[in-house]
Design brief:
Order of helices and strands of chain A: H
Helix content of chain A: over 70%
Distance between the termini of chain A: 101 Å
Strand content of chain A: under 5%
Radius of gyration of chain A: 33 Å
Number of strands of chain A: 0
Helix content of chain B: over 70%
Number of helices of chain A: 1
Oligomer: heterodimer
Order of helices and strands of chain B: HHHHHHHH
Distance between the termini of chain B: 45 Å
Structural class of chain B: mainly alpha
Largest interface: A-B, 26 and 27 residues
Largest sheet of chain A: none
Shape of chain A: rod-shaped
């Protein structure tokens, strides 16, 4: 039976389908961007940690050098 | 709706085929695959019109075309996300089911293989979007092309699953809507192919 209600249901189904596809696409793009920015942030944090490690390492070297010079009597505490 | 209008709407597939072949060299590889598919679809449309005028039944051509369509659409998905083993097995599954169905009943429409084709391609494209959500970057044009393919195959699935349940009047009405959706999708395909030949912007840039 091809009634008006049937036509409305079919057109509604198509609109819902289009909306469904649109929502999937939007969600994919949004989460994709988010995960990309997360990745960028992690990389930046990794770099920061590396720099901090280098600073700590150089500080330790400086401290051990000062200790050895003090033990040798070159400098006074 | 007159037969003339239906024929014109069916032949709108020539539009993305022409655009795709004209800009073939400047298109990204996944869209080149789809251009080939549109060219084949146009050829099949012409062939089936000619075949229908000589023989009463042209469904064998459509059944073979379903296998080619599934193969190329899944190739498009694998070129985007690179899951070659997964897509190759899906391609082989559709090929096997399609061939069996065509050989057993060449003069009836291959409902099982067409539904399987649509379902497999829908899963493939949703998987593609899932990969995008996890951070895989693709071209903007490829992303929109995948979206329209998803809409096209989802509407196809609904059409093929419900056509057996409808009465004649309703079936004609739904078929007309199906033809209009196909024509609309063809216009979008042509526009995206034209756009892809001019821009290479990434989706998540």
């Amino acid at each position: 039976m091809e009634s008006f209600a049937f036509k409305i249901i079919i057109v509604g189904l198509i609109v819902m389908l289009a909306a469904f596809v649109g929502i999937i696409m939007m969600l994919a793009a949004r989460y994709g961007r988010k995960s990309l920015t997360d990745e960028k942030r992690f990389k930046e944090q990794d770099n920061l940690i590396k720099v901090q490690d280098e600073i700590i390492e150089s500080d330790e070297k400086l401290i051990s050098l000062l200790k050895s010079r003090r033990e040798a009597g070159e400098i006074e505490s | 709706m007159s037969l003339m209008l239906v024929t014109i709407l069916a032949y709108t597939v020539a539009l993305p085929a022409c655009v795709g072949l004209y800009f073939y060299r400047s298109l990204p590889i996944p869209l080149r695959t789809l251009s080939v598919l549109f060219a084949i679809a146009t050829f099949v449309e012409i062939l089936s019109t000619v075949y229908r005028s000589y023989f009463s039944n042209n469904l064998i051509i459509i059944n073979v075309y379903i296998i080619i369509e599934a193969w190329l659409c899944l190739l498009f998905v694998s070129q985007c996300i690179g899951k070659i083993r997964l897509t190759r097995s899906a391609q082989l599954a559709v090929l096997a089911v399609g061939l069996i169905e065509t050989v057993i009943n060449p003069k009836t429409f291959a409902t099982v293989s067409s539904t399987l084709e649509s379902v497999v391609i829908i899963i493939g494209i949703i998987f593609l979007f899932f990969q995008v959500a996890l951070g895989t970057n693709i071209l903007k044009t490829v992303y929109f092309m995948a979206g329209i393919l998803l809409f096209y195959f989802a509407s196809n699935t609904i059409y093929f699953l419900t056509r057996g349940l409808l009465e004649m009047d309703s079936l004609i009405f739904v078929s007309i809507i199906h033809v209009w959706i196909n024509a609309g999708c063809n216009l979008f395909y042509a526009f995206i192919l034209w756009k892809a030949s001019h821009s290479r912007s990434l989706l998540l840039a």
